[in-house]
């Protein structure tokens, strides 16, 4: 799930014009405009201990890094400080990359969004024959979460290919595909399998060749244990009876499509630039990704392709949270205001989405914004 610092990371840092020091924080950079850095530091005081797992945060405004900060430790055992170059497991922030991989196949003419998954993916359970690719992207498929079939005693890690067998243990969907919304990690594991099937290469390799390299995300990867190495890896932790304890992997940590990417806030600056410049996906397809469907009952969903989408005080707001064993993350993006805030942490728990929103509000000059839409979607936690 991730890697290290290269020329693009230095380029991102070059955007920032002022170095600022602060106790408990490392490798800080800030643009000349925007809120004072101490205001942001105050929001992250719970992550700033020199003895606890940390956080990295970046603010991108008008195409430039307005602020980049890191707090706490990326590795408690080695006492390695977190930096903007630290690579965290993205958890569900991975889904926007999986959705992009699907859109690239659409642009290649190898796939249509209304294709039935059973027609393009061998082994997809027959009872799911009415599920379309678009249903998976928008969480309107109604398929079960594969985690429901993984026992608490499981020791061998589940991989994307195992998800089909787990889904075969069910015989129905929660609802008719396309009629309602229910968040499902299974959907994005299946989408990764579709990418593998139609591209003829592993999902990790496809992301590397078609997404990470073209965008300059040189330290980013869909991590496969024993195959790839994360050189600036932040390790995950949870709160134990007498302090933080290692909690870096779970039985589902090896599933890539729904959460297996490792990256840094520095590389995510390059990703944000690619989104805004349509460097990978056409403007038309990006609009599709950022437009939730209207359901048959006339209500509008709050999920596009790998992004939650809602209206925040008259502004389009794109967002996602990510929660997995030892990591909790968030991204919020206001495309029309050209503002993106990303918070990555290597600890279970906390509410980085609240921190990301507070930081965004500092730049927007607002307060009292609506809760993020994931907090209102079934099964989204």
Automatic annotation (TrEMBL):
Q: Which InterPro entries match?
A: AmpC-like, Beta-lactam-related, Beta-lactam/transpept-like
Per UniProt, the keywords (alphabetical) are:
Signal
Q: In the record, which residues are listed under signal peptide?
A: 1-25
The cross-references to PROSITE patterns, in alphabetical order and at most eight, read: PROKAR_LIPOPROTEIN (PS51257)
Known SUPFAM superfamilies for this protein?
beta-lactamase/transpeptidase-like
**Record's Pfam families?**
Beta-lactamase (PF00144)
* Entry protein name: Beta-lactamase family protein
- Species in which this protein is naturally found: Pyxidicoccus parkwayensis
What does UniProt list as this organism's lineage? Answer: Bacteria, Pseudomonadati, Myxococcota, Myxococcia, Myxococcales
């Amino acid at each position: 799930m991730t890697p290290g610092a290269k020329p693009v990371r230095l380029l991102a840092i070059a955007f920032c014009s002022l170095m600022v020091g602060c106790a408990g924080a490392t490798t800080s950079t800030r643009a000349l405009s925007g809120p004072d850095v101490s205001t942001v530091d105050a929001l992250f005081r719970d992550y700033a201990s020199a003895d606890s797992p940390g956080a990295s945060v970046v603010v991108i405004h008008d195409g430039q890094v307005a602020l980049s900060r890191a707090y706490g430790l990326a590795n408690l055992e080695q006492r390695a400080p977190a930096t903007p170059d630290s690579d965290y497991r993205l958890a569900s922030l991975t889904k926007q990359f999986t959705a992009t991989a699907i859109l690239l196949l659409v642009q290649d003419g190898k796939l249509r969004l209304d294709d039935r998954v059973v027609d393009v993916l061998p082994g997809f359970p027959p009872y799911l024959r009415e599920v379309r690719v678009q249903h998976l992207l928008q969480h309107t498929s109604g398929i079960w979460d594969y985690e429901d079939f993984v026992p608490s005693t499981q020791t061998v890690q589940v991989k994307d290919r195992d998800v089909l067998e787990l889904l075969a243990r069910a015989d129905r969907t929660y609802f008719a595909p396309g009629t309602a919304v229910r968040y499902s990690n299974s959907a994005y594991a299946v989408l990764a399998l579709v990418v593998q099937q139609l591209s003829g290469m592993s999902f990790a390799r496809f992301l590397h060749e078609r997404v990470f390299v073209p965008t300059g995300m040189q330290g980013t990867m869909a991590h496969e244990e024993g195959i790839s190495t994360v050189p600036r890896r932040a390790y995950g932790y949870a709160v134990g009876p007498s302090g933080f304890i290692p909690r870096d992997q779970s039985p589902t940590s090896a599933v890539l499509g729904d959460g297996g990417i490792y990256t840094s806030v520095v590389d995510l600056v390059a990703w944000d630039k690619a989104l805004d410049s349509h460097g990978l996906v056409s403007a038309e397809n990006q609009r599709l990704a950022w437009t939730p469907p209207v359901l048959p009952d006339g209500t509008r969903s709050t999920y596009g392709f790998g992004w939650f989408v809602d209206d925040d005080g008259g502004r389009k707001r794109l967002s996602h949270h990510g929660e997995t064993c030892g990591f909790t993350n968030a991204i919020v993006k206001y495309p029309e205001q050209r503002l993106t805030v990303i918070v990555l942490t290597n600890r279970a728990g906390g509410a980085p989405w609240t921190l990301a929103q507070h930081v965004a509000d500092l730049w927007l000059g607002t307060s009292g914004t609506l809760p993020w839409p994931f907090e209102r979607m079934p099964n989204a936690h």
